[in-house]
Amino acid sequence: MADTIVPRKIQVDFSQVPKHWMLGSGAATAVANGVNMLFPWGERFFVRSVKHFLSQIDDPVLQEQIKGFFGQEGRHAHAHDEFNAILRAQGYEVDRFLDTYKRLAAWIEARTPPKLRLAVTAACEHFTAILAEGAFKHGLLDEAAPEMRRLLAWHAAEEIEHKAVAFDVLHRVDPSYALRTLGLLYATVLLGGFWMWGTVTLLRQDRIGAAAATRELRALQKREPLIRRVFVRGIREYLRRDFHPNDNDHTKLASEWFAARGMSLPEAA
Description:
The protein has helices spanning 26-36, 39-51, 60-89, 95-110, 114-137, 146-161, 165-173, 177-205, 210-223, 226-238, 253-260. It has 269 residues and is an all-alpha fold.
């Protein structure tokens, strides 16, 4: 995690994004869009979960990192709101899914204790950090349409920067291993379930049948074993009693990725 977490500006012309923007594949794009659709509500949930405990944090360094975390996540939510609007323009019926997802997620949030919501957020941030690592290390972003490549590289870089914030807040509020593992269980079921639901929703609308989807997703899985790399590895790491997000050194991944392509991270807001 970066010592200083600074929100950055991003401008993306989503009107230039083709319908099947990932690998030119309808199934691969549905998988990517399936999680992208979750981000606006999810990022705002993360902010609410951490903000609930802000008054209990007296470490000035962590306080500043929390503020940067809020700024970055707020911009991510706004950018993906704009992307969801493009899905509508491309002919996808996403509002029924989004409305049901938000209502169900809000129902769960209202019935979940604040500490558990924070634990869920810390675990989800671990999963998103692994996703971000893979985006840079395994070349997936190079296979995305240019505008989506810009969006996701910016998002991934900032996820890596703030990956330990929620975890550090949780450790100060309640370092219980049982709470941390319960948050991991909730995060795995909710993220995995909502992601699969969103993906299937889009596959059906693209009229990609089960056989064709299975064939394309098997090919994708050989390139990028998402389930094994994100969930299996993520769970295994997180269950170590001495785990900390900074055990995985991602600090140079983003800068090296941008530099290798003659690019630089967007400027601070």
